[in-house]
Fold this protein.
Amino acid sequence: MSEDRVLLAHGDGGQLMAELVARVFVARLETGEPPGDDSAILPSTGVYPLPSHVVFTTDAFVVDPLFFPGGDIGRLAVCGTVNDLAAAGARPVALSASFILEEGLLIRDLERVVDSMARAAKEAGVKVICGDTKVVPRGRADRIYITTSGVGEVPQGVSISGGNAQVGDMVLVSGPLGDHGLAVLSRREGLEFGCEMVSDCAPLAGMVQDALAAAPGIRAMRDPTRGGLATALNEIARQSQVEIEVEETAVPVRPAVATACELLGLDPLYAANEGKMVVIVAPEQAEAALSALRSHPLGQEAVRIGQVQAGRPGRVLLRTALEAHRILDRHVGEQMPRIC
Amino acid sequence: MSEDRVLLAHGDGGQLMAELVARVFVARLETGEPPGDDSAILPSTGVYPLPSHVVFTTDAFVVDPLFFPGGDIGRLAVCGTVNDLAAAGARPVALSASFILEEGLLIRDLERVVDSMARAAKEAGVKVICGDTKVVPRGRADRIYITTSGVGEVPQGVSISGGNAQVGDMVLVSGPLGDHGLAVLSRREGLEFGCEMVSDCAPLAGMVQDALAAAPGIRAMRDPTRGGLATALNEIARQSQVEIEVEETAVPVRPAVATACELLGLDPLYAANEGKMVVIVAPEQAEAALSALRSHPLGQEAVRIGQVQAGRPGRVLLRTALEAHRILDRHVGEQMPRIC
């Protein structure tokens, strides 16, 4: 046990990573919050009680390659953190950015990445207000790693958590799945599939606020990044102790992504997204939420893909085109390393 | 110009790093705040005006070796961020921690680091409330890199910034300089100097709050990490547009550190500290501040080392034992890479 080593699969968002996080981090750091959500509520110290909910989140970005169709590590670092705040129902207040640079990196590549961060932050209506830079010798990093953290504020009356899903709720997704994962992977591996796949990398805080205004009955959200839709739904099913059923034929996947997945032996339900939101909403407000999502440029292809039901708590089921059911578990072993 | 590359010296806290930050980050990200302090005040969005000052900071840690006398990368990551908050006069409210792990890392080394983070956070009276983990292939990192971010709250009436120093203020330091830098360097290089040097790595928020309570006239603080005392004072002198004079004979340096510096050709005034605070205080409150620092276990060896004066704005002068003056500039070129 004590000679266990970190594997690439510990970083892919699946079962092994969940075990590592539980064993090494949550147990030792007494995070206080039940783990599961991608952000945490700032504690009120009593000295200056913080108003409403202020949420805090962090993510490291190690994507390979740095530049890919539809984005780059800088855009990803801003959108990833904004979207973790958005999944808590929060508007972004401020971001920090911390850089680990490999000796020998071209300054113009760094400039291109920082320009892209600035554009993404502007789109999201937030600023990077503090930062840090470290340099490590050649061969001790891969050009650029970025960690962004974010502070967000949750509007009064809004309470979103992966633990809030209830039996009867509807499951929506804001658009087609797998674009980011397949765009990065095909660029990294130099694969050609006839038409170029483009990452969906985008900041979703505005779309989420529109949906919340139209449907205050939204109970849980998650941006399905590493590990994709299947992992996001497994997390919510466990946190809420409910079963979630997804209709395979309802899950939107672009033809190019579906073809590439088939050729590569990948499942689009596990492929990463960086501009999509999974939304769990009370059934009577599902139409209002869908319509608000579709009215936003980033949610035009939003659809209902399933529902929350009684059954085995923590389980995610896929109802296939042939009306069979298969369990959509957390995956074990690496599917796509360094996708974000 | 466009083929410039990142050098190790871009990460050492000196002149080249200041230029890179100004050229690449500040110019592009429109951080809004005048750069210079190690934390930034969260903007008030107007929707939920944040009470008093809430400050935000981030730092990446890439220290080599991971474990050194007096600490490790985990303790460093907590203390470094707590101390950046403390330098703004803030109490820590919450921390985040983001890990980049190299494939093959021993899980027990990771556990040791996380245990150490937990202990340091407990000492500082703060919790790590959110985190992230990425894994990169062998040879794309050096075992563990950690980025911590922190949110802190500044007590009412306290306004601390490197831009607030005034002519006539006194310059204090909370204890001997260079312990961290020399402890890490001698462990990394396998050097023996007869007696072991021990890092001063410690969380200073409690000591700083005691000093602020006793001396509300404290105007500027800085924890002299990368680049040491000389760099911290240069930053304050520039931000405040004042001259600072330091008396060489008053600067505390332990004999073992002084000897090691002499043998290695290093200057202790540029060596890193991780448990010291530079304090600029109104002259009439200098005694009260000193006495409060000395009453705290982490500030027992606090002393006055100089003063703020008219003269050339932005300049730091060292008055030597022989009553000569030499300019204590930002250093150019690497002195100690990967010290934090």
